[in-house]
Design goal:
Helix content: 40-55%
Shape: globular
CATH architecture of the largest domain: 3-Layer(aba) Sandwich
Radius of gyration: 19 Å
Strand order of the largest sheet: 3-2-1-6-4-7-5
Order of helices and strands: EHEHHEHEEHEHEHHHH
CATH superfamily of the largest domain: SPOUT methyltransferase, trefoil knot domain
Strand content: 5-15%
Distance between the termini: 31 Å
Number of helices: 10
Number of strands: 7
Oligomer: single chain
Length: 245
């Protein structure tokens, strides 16, 4: 199934190499093969290979990145898995609902499921890099799953969503990619700082709120170009040099 290859599993700052191997095995049982690691503490490692138990090929092909931004390059939808709601975070939905959107999006581009560290999960900055958040409904007073177990549940739910026959899916205009959105956010922040609207000494959570706003909108590529054109016209002192190609 071609859509399976458009799903990226991103593990951020994994502490225990055995969890990387177990996650690779969980992915392979559901037909997924794109594993990306963001600054793993220990990798490669014999324990990862042992826990992969036949999914060694996923470990060999796994890409290591130094930042989540690099790991999400080229994706049009990134979903952060978290066990708890965060203050001012993007709207959080049950995983079974979110995977329906992910499955539809694979008809147009790459999508990513993002997992945090074993102890603390995803940071607020990492959650900001995702367009939406998902949780795995579990016992409220004991809701934190082992990393590999969370990967297994997510892989299963997404596979079931991909197997459903939705008929033809079309979109006239493609969504903006992760790097295009990040370029826009950087441009917007520079303009807000340069214009004096954003106080660098007391920034508050303005940029977090703006990220939430545009994440809900699911901004298209052409819309990003329009927004950056507006920023450049309103504040020509910023030339938008970091604009993605």
């Amino acid at each position: 199934m071609a859509s399976l290859s458009r799903v990226r599993f991103v593990l951020c700052e994994t502490t225990h190499p055995g969890n990387i191997g177990a996650a690779a095995r969980a992915m392979k049982t559901m037909g997924f093969g794109d594993l990306v690691l963001v600054s793993p503490k220990i990798f490669p490692d014999d324990q990862a290979t042992a826990m992969a138990s036949g999914a060694d090929d996923l470990l060999l092909s796994a890409r290591c990145c130094s930042t989540l931004e690099d790991a999400l390059a080229g994706t049009t939808l990134a979903v952060g898995l978290t066990a708890r709601r965060r203050d001012l975070s993007h709207p959080m939905q049950p995983l079974r609902e979110v995977v329906q959107d992910m499955a539809r999006e694979t008809a147009h581009g790459d999508v990513a499921l993002v997992f945090g560290t074993e102890m603390s999960g995803l940071s607020n900055a990492q959650l900001d890099a995702c367009q939406c958040l998902a949780n795995i409904p579990a016992q409220p007073d004991f809701s934190s799953l082992n990393l590999a177990a969370a990967v297994q549940v997510a892989a299963y739910e997404l596979r079931q969503a991909l197997l459903q026959d939705r008929g033809p899916v079309g979109r006239e205009y493609p969504l903006a990619t992760h790097e295009e959105l990040e370029g826009f956010y950087q441009h917007l922040e520079r303009v807000l700082l340069g214009s004096g609207f954003l106080d660098p000494h007391h920034p508050g959570r303005l940029m977090t709120r703006l990220r939430r706003l545009f994440a809900r909108a699911r901004v298209e590529r052409e819309e990003v170009s329009i927004l950056r054109g507006i920023l450049k016209a309103l504040y020509p002192a910023d030339d938008g040099a970091s604009r993605p190609s």
